[in-house]
Amino acid sequence: MVVLSVPAEVSVILLDIEGTTTLISFVKDILFPYIKENVKEYLQKHWEEEECQQDVSLLRKQAEEDAHLDGAAPIPAASRSGLDDLQQMIQAVVGNVCWQMSLDQKTTALKQLQGHMWRAAFTAGHMKAEFFEDVVLAVRKWKEAGMKVYIYSSGSVEAQKLVFGCSTEGEIVDGHSDTKIGHKVESESYRKIANSTGFSTNNILFLTDVTLEACAAEEADVHVAVVVRPGNAG
Prior knowledge:
The radius of gyration is 19 Å and the shape is globular. The chain is built from eight helices and five strands, in the order E-H-H-H-H-H-E-H-E-H-E-H-E. Helix 6 (157-165) links the parallel strand 2 and strand 3 (175-177). The chain is α/β, with parallel strands linked by helices and 234 residues long.
């Protein structure tokens, strides 16, 4: 994470999470399995809550959009019938969530539910993020040098805040972006992030372990550093 030479015009450090600030295995082996193992119980516990119903509604809408895909997992319309129908509905949502995750989908609907589940887990102390040793120190040094530090990850903004806020001494970054602003392999996403921060793309240094993301950022005139971490691909 140590950046030996930051261009003079850089005022913003933009960080990826998975494979850059945390081990890929933290996401792959801890965060994602937690969703699959606990989504049914979570839905049963929170089903009547407005937030959960909003999550299900968004998932249902996404399922309708995905209906043409092979193996698509539909979610039927809401029913006011008895317990059996409720359990069938929950099972349909579970099936859709697991199907999307099997395809590594990054839909807003899926990320929103995941974020809410992780929030509950972090708040209850059931999990804590594992950063590389140099991350928090590097962020503090950048901020001491007067730079802003932002996160851009495919995980929801809420999930990002949980990872950093619950696993350090409070929130240590200045802002967050997720795929609502655009996909990470699209150059326009980085222009939008620059606009949202009030800086130009040339004022941003993006750290990522994914070369396709690095190329997209470079196309937007963003400075890029490709991070090499243990466990990352090639």
